[in-house]
Amino acid sequence: MSSGKPLLSTSEPSSATSPHHRRHSSLTIGSLGRLCHNTSISSSVTDGSQHSNLSDHNDELEDELEEFDEDISPLGGALRNSVECPAYLRTRKKFKPVDLQLQLPLPERKLLVSWGGVTDPQHVWSMREVSGASSQAVSSGIQDYLNKSQRSERFLQISMQLKENLTHHDNPRLIHINDPKRTNDNFEYSGNEIRTSKYTFLNFLPKNLFIQFHRVAYLYFLAIAALNQLPPLAVFGRTVSLVPLLFVLTVTAVKDGYEDWRRHRSDRNENNREALVLQSGKFHPKRWKKLQSGEVVKICSDETIPCDMVLLNTSDPSGIAYIQTMNLDGESNLKTRYARQETNKLVLDGTIISGVITCEQPNRNIYEFTANLEIKGQRYPLSQSNIILRGCQLKNTEWAIGVVVYAGKDTKAMLNSAMSPAKRSRLETYMNRETFWLSVFLLIMCLVVAIGMGLWLNTHKNQLDTLPYYRKIYFDKKKFGEKYKYYGIPMETFFSFLSSIIVFQIMIPISLYITMELVRLGQSYFMIGDRHMYDSSSDSRFQCRSLNINEDLGQIRYVFSDKTGTLTENKMEFRKASVWGKQYGSTLSVDGTGDTNVGAEAVLEGRRTWKLKSEITPDSELLKLLHNDLSGDERIAAQEFFLTLAACNTVIPIATQSPSSSDTDSTLRASYGIVDYQGESPDEQALVAAASAYGYTLYERTSGHIVVDVNGEKLRLVVLGLHEFDSVRKRMSVVIRFPNDSVKVLVKGADTSMFSILKRDHPDDNHTKHATQSHLNEYSSEGLRTLVVASRDLTGEELVEWQSTYEDASTSLTDRSIKLRQTAALIECDLTLLGATAIEDKLQEGVPEAIESLRQAGIKVWVLTGDKQETAISIGLSCKLLTADMEQIIINGTSESECRKFLCDAKAKYCVKSANSCDQISVWRQNTESDYLEIPLGTKLSSLQQQHAGQEEGASFGPLALIIDGNSLVYILEKDLESELFDLATSCKVVLCCRVAPLQKAGIVDLIKCRSDDMTLAIGDGANDVSMIQMADVGVGICGQEGRQAVMASDFAMGQFRFLKRLLLVHGHWNYQRIGYLVLYNFYRNAVFVLMLFWYILYTAFSTTSALTDWSSVFYSVLYTSLPTIVVGILDKDLSHKTLLKYPKLYSAGYRQESYNMSLFWITMLDMLWQSLVLFYVPLFTYRDSTIDIWSMGSLWTIAVVILVNMHLAMDIQRWVVITHISLWGSISITYSCMVVLDSIPVFPNYGTIYHLAKTPAYWLSILLIVVVGLLPRFIFKVLQQIFWPSDIQIAREAEIMSKRRHFFGSKPDRISS
């Protein structure tokens, strides 16, 4: 134990420490200047992205470790610690001793660093345990060396390291408080006016066109339109040729212009808001856009912060301000910010503040701020807890005063306003492949026409004066005798080639791009409106944040999921505790009630003055231990245990008084106070609430102290410093002074980082450690989240040394977080183990069912979590990710060779082959077709062979599950073991990665993306999932308890994991089927039109003339056939949502690419070739003996091709609704109407043709014959396929139709009889 007397004892300050502490009183230096020899290597000073300023390192070792150290910070720091050479501890010659203020009495020494200035907020948002290198191994040779180091050398070395570069920073920003003129004259900082719009009135047209023409297809059509302007190549009218491109550009420009106008309006409203600015000693209103750096601004309650400001004073005497950062990061919990006590007192005294803030240059990190404040020659540190950012709101604080440090575009909110990386759909990339082949067809047709023209001209070169189309002399009256501009056969052949490109230009469908955008927009509308994906608990509906990848939802093969907050609720409940080696919590009943707990509550009833807003039922045995009158180590440990839970946190207590519920005893004791807690971590809130339930209620927090109610007695604790949780140390500590002037450091953290910094070589400590370790394993196996709690006393000398070092680290402008970690290592050692906590994080509703459905669909679900391996396995079993029949492959390597051995042994044992193409296909088929859920009315014939192969391959083993930890991934992902991991992981049904860091999550996703063609989806709810979400093909964010960083970085967002089932199996399937068919149909629709023109040109001496009017060619894609395509792309459904959810296996059609592949493309092109021949030759043979003119034939071809492609579409529509009928038949009606209008204009050459044609039976017979003959092969093929080779979807659709018929005919007699 760290103290031999009760906590509330009024004994002398440094009265006795326990014998255990005396045994280790001769402190030694760690490899990086640490106080204790057994400090955890995870508290290394080195950070992955930065290097410490420590000198005398071996350069060669530095070079060898640098690359490995950059990405894996915990391990890199550990390795660097282990290779320090003795020369490291030599004092530099230039070093000058620093005044340590040792001559001052400890109570009188001025506390320069308040609680508000010590945070290292880089990982504030990640309070969960994250993985890093193991902290269990420090070599004995290094330990022997460290134990010989002298204390004075250690302290001088650390002081030198932290003092060096104290005021140096690359181009620091200087802010003169209340002197904006001086601040901005020297540096010209950005004003506070913001502009989120892209365009201005002057640059809109050129800039928008420049952005639009990034699409290569638009450049293609621009070149076509330009060619058509040349006289020799003017096939169409020069104006008409520009219409399609201008239409698409105009529609996009109008959309972009409207969106930008809304941005301008929003910017104008934002910039013209007003704030109170200090001018001539008084606060006057001033528009936001005129605010400048250096000005002092006053913010009132519920107002929005206009710029990034350092707090100087608040309405709270202790300088606390509460802010809500929802507009910045989406988190609704209140957060505390603090004004420095020095500035707070000056403002309260009425003193005009003048000083200088030296801060870092603007950056995007909203969780970190590094600066110093200089007032009256004194320098004070500033951190993220002293700054309030633009976009936040002031809450529960009457007013706050601050000085502007960043304004306008320099604010962190504006620097973070960039959108997440744009993603492109997989199907769209495949579409480029087919576009290439269409371009080849286009060039071949143009070459045929050009070569044909050259040969024809050469054959008839002597007759060119008299032959139509090529005669050299005009015969009309106006130009009689004049010669045509004839350029010779070679040039005429070349011009024919270019003219053919213009005629056949719509072979590449320009309308497809805008059609796909409109279809995706419509699909998103229905996904957002799906009431089955609305989460009532969080009042959040589904969000489509990206419209480019809707169809990718139907092709997902791998789902990478976070655990906490994604599979679980992230609503923590304190369940069990291990205190001083003894377990408590077994008396807690499931419903929180029980006879034993009634008596336990009575123990506290007479002493308690505070109650939780949400009550927790405590363990009766633990309550008796805390409140009996016996003394002893176990009771003292229990008291320190709960005091640590109450004090070592950043939770905000919100206390409200309420009268006593009983009138009889209200005169005997004070009324109860109701306290509630708000914090950035659900874990911390649960632990503080648990401490309150056991009589240790935190009810007041200021910048310099906290107040804890201990069983009715007020305990005021001075906070000397706080080292926040970070992913390198994986723990948190607070240094507090008790009323009796004793000083303790209270620590909590992950077991991997805590056990290595405990006291060693004492029987009591070893017994407690082993018992606690056993309890931790038990908790983890139950799926509970664990933390270890420890403490130690600090002597006066240790405190002075730590404070001096801490002050230097917290005021450093360079590598502050690294130096604070180094400083934390000075006191986070030789700890006394108090116990461990177990918190339950329940599964979300519907998670097991969702995972089971995804697995039946052939989707592999991988869980990537920062939790312990045992916890992750327990959650995996409860959510049905792991099953009892699975063979578990566990890889926990501590070196590259060990990881290689584990991987190779597993591959050999389970007969896993290297992932060449054949093996990949075999594994893919096995995992796809195994556990197939049969559907009625048929069997999938194509899967029988694959099922049989899968059964043979896995006959001797059950399904495989790979479980691997983050430490192993350090070696695997950085070395040449990725292929081994890929082979093994893809052979497993389940992969569970434990203790993984955020970048490792992204690395796992990238492993699958780079080595396979499978589509990946990542889903998470926290900021540590952002890299994984952005790396995956599709990123899904959960609107959870950890803020909205994941949502803001995602492509889609929803409230619960269970909605992923409907998103993929229903909407993903529909979207993929629709878009796949849409693309193929657009290729077919335009190609059949072009081929029809091609056959005509072959019959007109390769002259590139057209029988169709220019307007008919333009309107074909834009007006005549576009509407039905859009409606079908949005509304068509091959199967109902009930069928898709009932038979998840139907989803496999997506990642098998059954709706869009090269085979379908070539089949469609063959069908298109037949239909184009029918289109051309049926009218030709029908009117071969007539005197019909060319324009009449063109009019017939126009209406025939429109009816044909619409009937083609009608054959494939699965779901007929009213709007489908209107669009399809309305499209044909619009075509007739336009033709009537165009044929009624006398200046057009086709004047009156439709009126003459419509009177003849041959006209209508030709159209009917074209449709029947053209679609007959397609109809026969579809019938034969559905009868003899039905797909899963066709079988399911037939079952669905039969079920409806049985229901209809079965219920009709009932309705009649009733």
From TrEMBL:
Top-level class of the enzyme under EC nomenclature: translocase
**Which residues are annotated as active site?**
562
Positions annotated to bind ATP? 562-564, 684, 725, 748, 785, 865-867, 995, 1001, 1024-1025
Keywords, A to Z, come to:
ATP-binding, Magnesium, Membrane, Metal-binding, Nucleotide-binding, Translocase, Transmembrane, Transmembrane helix
- According to its UniProt record, the EC number is 7.6.2.1
List of residues binding Mg(2+): 562, 564, 1021, 1025
Question: Which GO terms fall under molecular function for this chain's record?
Answer: ATP binding; ATP hydrolysis activity; ATPase-coupled intramembrane lipid transporter activity; magnesium ion binding
GO CC list: plasma membrane
- According to its UniProt entry, this protein's organism is Olea europaea subsp. europaea
Q: What is this protein called?
A: Phospholipid-transporting ATPase
Write down the InterPro entries for this protein, in alphabetical order.
Answer: ATPase_P-typ_cyto_dom_N, ATPase_P-typ_P_site, ATPase_P-typ_TM_dom_sf, ATPase_P-typ_transduc_dom_A_sf, HAD-like_sf, HAD_sf, P-type_ATPase_IV, P-type_ATPase_N
Q: Where is the composition biased (Acidic residues)?
A: 59-72
Question: Which residue intervals define the domain P-type ATPase C-terminal in the entry?
Answer: 1047-1287
Domain P-type ATPase N-terminal residues, every copy:
175-240
- Indicate the family of this protein: Belongs to the cation transport ATPase (P-type) (TC 3.A.3) family. Type IV subfamily.
Q: Where is this region: Disordered?
A: 1-25, 40-73
- Matches recorded under NCBIfam families: ATPase-Plipid, ATPase_P-type
Q: Which residues cross the membrane?
A: 233-254, 436-457, 494-514, 1083-1102, 1114-1135, 1156-1178, 1190-1209, 1216-1238, 1258-1277
Keyword Cell division assigned to the entry: answer is no
- How does it sit in the bilayer? Multi-pass membrane protein
Q: Coiled-coil region(s) at which residues? A: none
- Which coenzymes or cofactors are required? Mg(2+)
Where would you find this protein in the cell?
Answer: Membrane
Q: Locations of Polar residues compositional bias?
A: 1-18, 40-55
Please tell me whether the keyword Disulfide bond is annotated for this protein.
Answer: no
